[in-house]
Amino acid sequence: MTDIIITQTAPVLVAIDISKARDEVLIAIADKKRCRRLTVLNQLDDFNRLITSLACYGRPVRVAFEATGNYHRALAYHLAAAGFELKLVSSVALARTREALHNSWDKNDPKDAQVILHMMEIGNEQFYHAPLVRGTNDIQELSKTHDIVSKSKTELWHRVVAPSCGTEF
């Protein structure tokens, strides 16, 4: 009779709440009850330390985070380059889920990491495409530049035209 060998393919779930200076990381492994919590500074050394610790699990790794301005871009690039699966969590969905789970709108980074992990477990996440890895960085930068120029044009238009219009209708 042959032996059947079943390998562990359940991914390691990593929820990251990203902020300007540091990121709160919550790591959940399928067969463990407790989660591992880390604080990662937005520095290359800490990114490499996180990537090394995630690679040591010997399982597929799925990382989810909320895109916050541009702060997520550096970490996301390094995680994608390391070969991890990246997911995005909607800011609105995160706020609503946090409010529903904790019966409060109060926000803090460790709590947000827990909510992101919960959203990963129920499959409420989106695909993330790293602009540098996908080659869409130039398009994204042009889009942001167009947005800034359009807002500046509208603001200038309102300054020039609005005062000359007067209050008569």
Automatic annotation (TrEMBL):
Highest rank taxon of the organism: Bacteria
UniProt-recorded Gene Ontology molecular function terms: DNA binding; transposase activity
Domain Transposase IS110-like N-terminal: 14-155
Pfam families assigned to the protein according to its UniProt record, in alphabetical order: DEDD_Tnp_IS110
GO BP annotation list: DNA transposition
Protein name in the entry: IS110-family mobile element-associated protein
Species assigned in the record: Octadecabacter antarcticus 307
